[in-house]
Amino acid sequence: MSDVSRPRTAAAGADTLSTLLPMGMVASRAWLLAHGLSKDRLDNHVKSGRLRKLARGVFCQQHAALNWENVVASFSLSMDIPAYAGGLTALEEYGYSQYLTLGAQRVIEVYSTLPEPSWLQALAEHVEGVRFRWHKTQRLWQPEVVEQQIGVIHRPWSPSANAQVLARAETAYIELLHEVPGQISFEHADEIMQGLTSLSPRKVSQMLAHCKSIKAKRLFCWLADRHSHSWWKTLSDQEVDLGKGKRVIEQGGRLDKRYLITVPASLYQDYPDGKT
C-alpha cells in the first residue's frame, strides 16, 4: 500500500504547488507556508528545482518567464503586499505617454502603503528590461486608496496572464503630479494633461478628495484650468481642500496667485483668461 501511495502524494504535492503558484507568478516563503505548503515540501521543491529562488524568501516555478505585470499582480495575490502600478507607468499603459525603448530600462512605478521590500531590486534582476521604483503612499493617499483599491482597476492584457493591477488614469495623473518637478518635469505633466480629454468628473472628484498632497492637488487644479477640458467644467476647485499658504514648486518660477504655487514662467504666460 505504501508503494502505491507515494506517487499519489508526490502528484498531490505537484498539484498543490501549481495551484498555489501559477506559472509566471512569484510568491514569498511566508505566503506559501501560510497557504498550505509545508516547510519540508517547500524545501524539497527548492532542492529539486521545481521552485526557483529569485531573492531571499521569494520564489517562482522553474522555467517561469517573469514580466512586470505578473510581478505586480503577485504583490497582492501571493505576498500579502497591497500594491499596484501607478503614476507614469499606468498612463503609459493607457497611451497617454510613451516610454523609451532604445536600450533604456523601463521604470515601473509601484505604489503601496508598505515600505519597499528588501528583496525588490534582487527580484527585478530576473525581469528583463525593467526596474521598479517603489512609492510609499502615506503622504499622497488616504490608506483606503491602496488597501481597498479605490481608483485601481484589474485590466486584462493577455489570455495567459493575470490582469494588470493599474491605477485608473485619474489616480495615476495625481500620482504623477506628486513627482513634479523631481522625477517629472512641468512640461511633461502639461503635455499629458493636454491629452486627458475623457477623464471621469466623478472619479476625479473622488481621487482629489482622497489625496493628502496639497502640492499635487493644486497642480492638478492649475493644469486643469489651463486646458479647460469639458470634464473640469463640471467640477469646482472650491470643493477641493487646497490647504493654505504658498508652495514653492518651481525654484525661481512665477507665483500663480490663484493656487499660490510657483510655476515655470513659460507656462505661467499661457495661463488662460489672464488669471493672476
UniProtKB/TrEMBL annotation:
**Where on the tree of life does the source sit, at the highest rank?**
Bacteria
Q: Which Pfam families does the record cross-reference, listed alphabetically? A: AbiEi_3, AbiEi_3_N
Q: Where is the Transcriptional regulator AbiEi antitoxin N-terminal domain?
A: 16-102
Tell me what this protein is called: Transcriptional regulator AbiEi antitoxin N-terminal domain-containing protein
In its UniProt entry, the species of origin is given as: Pseudomonas abyssi
